[in-house]
Specification:
Radius of gyration: 24 Å
Bound molecules: flavin-adenine dinucleotide
Strand order of the largest sheet: 14-15-18-13-21-19-20
CATH architecture of the largest domain: 3-Layer(bba) Sandwich
CATH class of the largest domain: Alpha Beta
Number of strands: 23
Length: 509
């Protein structure tokens, strides 16, 4: 293959027109093209008077050696994950989030038939549980925005970006496309799927795994683990008050970061874990049109997607404030998974066509901030804040919100301005300074003012802050050895709470 990169395009064009532009410029004969595809597409908006697309395309050409001026590339094949089917006699996967689902798929691709146990509902019914909570404030503690098939990211933006550089990232994207995601996720610099598409993709994945012999047990919670002589023997599950024991030679623990009772049980059973740094803060909402203007300027005629941003500030105190999980054209999502708590997060549909943009605005928290030395101390820290937010919101699952101007002046908001909050089931005007730890409040204030110098309008007085964002990453890490096994033989932690690295999905040694 040859790759042509840094192709600047200053108007909206079709793929056909793109190809024609490229072959004309590089003097390529059309009849020499055997195959071609876009390998990268991004937006360069650094100069507001010259916003343009940047493309790279890969071509397979007849007589490639004839085109000496073009760069040859060797696209590495997607690596295969190999597992030993014979040693994996009975594989149980706890959790049907992204890590559990991909673990199940990988098992199937290696001739291993897994049982997937998920405390929440299948994705279709789970959507109803979430809708009931958003409309009526009735929380189902086992099936909600954090729990259920598809995991925590289902009611999300479906952002597919990661800081890790692993060849398995390509496999994940390709599998999503195989199950119906748009092909563009393979080449966009910031791909996303959107909640509306994710739900169907996950359903297709499950159907495929079942068609190959896999089993899904929904509404079934793993409540205990049988361990004998340092080896996992079985898991105990509860389904509608009925207890069941399922024996297993290998258990993949894909429980995410919010299954607090499961972490507690694992700790009681002697599974080694440690507390881990994470971040807390609020969601911030702006008008998407203001973010577009700040990022793209006013001159461009291109039909650009809703703009995003990523900002960071390092305070003299040593703390950092940063934006995370920015959702263009999205809504702030009620993400509680426990009674009497408020947890915020963000989501968007594929079109990202909502009026507001939102992102998490976070400050780092270290284990020195926790009151206890227990590995579960971070969970207690999160829970305390979530309960305070619940009370501040009126103890009815309404989230406490505040205008940015009022937050900066430490006074309770008494009106909503030009930017309307999107959080459901409802919001309560509050002073978030009343519940945030002082170091979080002060670092957020410094961060907001600094970000306004980088992204005009970030500190718009009417911007809405919604409390409280506590689940940006796991407060606990289950320890593993270099073969990815916990201190219990046959017990493999993966995904959130074990750090997300794709190679962790290999289930067998
Ligand atoms: C609203 C929201 C938006 C997000 N947006 C994005 C985004 O756009 N992009 C992104 O990359 N990340 C996003 N995230 C984060 C992302 O969802 C997580 O990083 C990801 O889901 C972690 O995957 P996981 O499989 O490790 O865990 P999870 O997705 O948390 O899945 C764990 C599953 O295990 C189940 N489980 C736990 N304990 C038990 C038990 N004892 N028995 C049975 N089942 C159990 C849970 O019910 C859950 O379904 C978002 C998160 C939220 C909440």
């Amino acid at each position: 293959m040859v790759r042509i990169s840094h192709i600047k395009i200053r108007k909206d064009i079709s793929e056909k027109e793109l190809l024609e532009t490229v072959i004309a410029k590089n003097k390529i004969r059309k009849s020499d093209i055997l195959e071609w595809y876009i390998s990268k597409k991004s937006i360069d908006a650094r100069k507001k008077d010259d916003v343009h697309y940047l493309y790279a395309i890969d071509l397979k050409l007849k007589n490639e050696t004839k085109y000496k001026n073009l760069n040859q590339v060797r696209n590495l094949p997607i690596p295969e994950i190999q597992a030993n089917a014979i040693s994996c006699k009975k594989v149980v996967i706890v959790g049907a989030g992204p890590s559990g689902l991909f673990a199940a798929l990988t098992c199937i691709q290696n001739g291993i038939i897994p049982i997937v146990i998920e405390q929440g509902d299948c994705v279709e019914k789970r959507k109803l549980n979430v809708d009931t909570f958003l409309k009526k404030g009735k929380l189902n503690e086992l099936s909600n925005v954090q729990f259920g098939e598809g995991g925590a990211g289902t009611f999300s933006d479906g952002k597919l970006t990661t800081n890790i550089n692993s060849p398995f990232c390509k496999k994940v994207l390709q599998e999503f496309v195989n199950f119906g995601a748009p092909k563009e996720i393979l080449y966009l610099s910031k791909p996303h799927i959107g909640t509306d598409h994710l739900i169907h993709i996950i359903k297709r994945m499950r159907k495929y795994i079942i068609s190959k012999g896999g089993t899904f047990l929904f509404n079934t919670k793993v409540i205990d683990f049988e361990i004998k002589y340092g080896k996992i023997k079985s898991v105990f599950c509860l389904n509608q008050n009925k207890e069941q024991k399922i024996s297993a030679t290998h258990v993949i623990l894909a429980i995410g970061h919010s299954s607090r009772d499961t972490f507690k049980k694992l700790y009681e059973r002697g599974i080694k874990m440690e507390k881990k740094n994470f971040s807390v803060g609020v969601r911030i909402e702006h008008l998407q049109k203001d973010i577009n203007k700040a990022q793209y300027g006013e001159i461009t005629k291109l039909k650009l997607p809703p703009a995003n941003y990523k900002l960071a500030y390092h305070a003299p105190s040593g703390r950092s404030c940063y934006t995370f999980c920015m959702c263009p054209g999205g809504v702030v999502m009620a993400s509680s998974s426990e009674k009497n708590t408020i947890v915020s997060n963000g989501m968007s549909n594929f079109a990202r066509d909502g009026k507001n943009a939102n992102s998490a605005l976070l400050v780092n928290v270290t284990s020195a901030d926790f009151k206890s030395t227990s590995p579960l101390a971070g969970i207690y820290f999160q829970k305390d804040l979530e309960e305070k937010a619940f009370k501040l919101g009126g103890s009815n699952y309404f989230a406490p919100i505040q205008r940015v101007e009022d937050f900066l002046q430490n006074k309770k908001s008494n009106f909503i301005g030009t930017i309307k909050p999107t959080y459901l089931p409802g919001v309560t005007l509050s002073n978030l300074n009343d519940i945030l730890p002082e170091f979080v409040s002060s670092t957020l204030k410094e961060g907001i003012k600094y970000f306004d110098t980088k992204l005009h309008g970030f500190a718009n007085p009417d911007s809405i802050l919604t409390g409280i964002e506590t689940r940006s990453s796991s407060p606990v890490r289950i320890l593993r050895n270099k073969n990815l096994i916990s201190n219990i033989l046959g017990l493999y932690p993966c995904g959130e709470g074990a750090r997300l690295r794709w190679r962790h999905y290999v289930c067998c040694s």
